[in-house]
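Demo today. Your pick:
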Amino acid sequence: MPFPNLMAASSSTGDSTLLLFALVLLLSVLVSQFANRSVLSTAVVFLVAGFICGPGVTGALRLSPDQPIVSGFIELALFSVLYTDGMRVGIRDLTSAWKLPGRALLFGLPLTLVAVGVVAKFLLGLSWTEAAVIGAVLSPTDPVFAAAIVGREEVPYRLRHLLNVESGLNDGLALPLVLIALGIAGKAELELATMLTELGVGVAIGVVVPWIAIRLESTRVFASSEPYRPLLGFAIGLTVLALTRMFHANEFLAAFAAGMTIATKDEKLRERFHELGELLAELFKLAALLIFGALIDPSYFGEIGLTGWTFVFLTLVLARPLAMLVSFAGTDLTKREWVAAAWFGPKGFASVFFAFLVLQHHLDHGVWIFHLLAVTVGTSIIAHSSTDVIVARWFDEEEAQ
């Protein structure tokens, strides 16, 4: 019977993935102190470990994009990332020092999308709709891969605030654009009403669930004890995830809306959940990067060709800097702050998930586009994660002068 064999294969894949993740995590923790002082990045360690153990190199991990373990884990990781990202940007955070993040989001995000799309259209010869998909997928940023920038006191606060707020919001803002672009470019008919309903119900669940939980928790009857208070944030997120799947709503916008609602309504809950939430999101993200690395086959590097590599280069060193140059025109950013903001636009974890969506929408060149996106995101993670400490020290030297 094939069913037991399938279950055995799935179990074997899960066990080997779990073992590899545990070993790489152990190694990363043991060298974390050294990594904080060098260009070594934990994200790069997991990405490279997955690549080496993937089917294209050693074959220790037998993973493919169509396996449930891959899509399921990527979705769970993005949900946790968006949930914790949302908690960084409550209404109070948005109204304070909004000028620079607002420019990055309202001008920088769409300008980056357009710049990447134009390059994809004329350099790669793709259709406008496929080019728009690539632009939307690669427009969000994730400074988690540039942790030394947002976590160092020597880096100016307004720059750290800019990158934090921008990355916290642009994943959620880019998601509808990605879905619309994929719907237009894909072979399946775009059901705009259905998609908007899923998005709207997702946002509603994301706002209502934490609002009710926070109201209940503030009463004497339902007040939580201090040791359990961090778990309240976890329980809210889990409830939101379950309800969105039950009602077929968009779980990612729900996660982001839930995080923002908590940040706005209950500052203490945000603070108490912060350490647990960030740790859980980081674990999910690292595991997903391991899986993503295992899916990058060495053949992709040659398959995308010279034009593909030219696209990768222009995307990383031209599209974002040009968009930021226009967005911050007339502001009082120093040259070093502008350079850091322009360079640290790493293609983050949201782009990893969006790349998987490309495969599910059956674009004419969908497989090739996925390979191109995989190489672009992987290159971005390595390039940005390897230069964050250097740029942070650059600001430290400026302060010492």
User: Anything to note?
Assistant: The domain at 2-400 is CATH 1.20.1530.20 (Na+/H+ antiporter like fold).
